[in-house]
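Recap from last week: sequence in, structure out.
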Amino acid sequence: MSEPRINERIRVPEVRLVGPSGEQVGVVRVEDALRLAQEADLDLVEVAPDARPPVAKLMDYGKFKYESAMKARDARRNQANTVLKEIRFRLKIDAHDYETKKGHVERFLTGGDKVKVMIMFRGREQSRPEMGMRLLQRLAEDVSELGSVESAPRLDGRNMTMVIAPHRKKAEARSEQRRRRDEERAARRAEKHERDQAPA
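Predicted structure tokens:
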């Protein structure tokens, strides 16, 4: 976004002036608006250059820019991007490996990320796609508390893929993790304080 014109850079004969608290002053000559800005120790900022006449507001431009930058930074911090994580299964997976990989899927979903689950078929396994379908459905049921199937299992060459999306958005998951961390820290501090206060 380009910077608005301020003070002497506003080169129009008159502006529709808005006061520092948002009150309408009316259409005034730009010289008068600049004088009012100087008297109030504020800047004259053009906020709607395409209006006829342009709209200008009396404000502390430095403070306005700082607050805008802080808002933009907070918005970026809260806008955590969802990542598509990928996890691969074999058709003949033993129970222990299944539990381990299911744990990874649960961790990704808890963190607010989508998971693309892929089963790789080898050799004769390709003639048994229904076994892959059963394995993916079992996984979807096992993690149903954390996420739901966004794209159903489908065969793609020698692979079968399915996407599971988390129930919670990434930003919610992040703030939940932060809150838990803060609570744990507070509990540890309270314990330490109690130990320090206890008579020797």
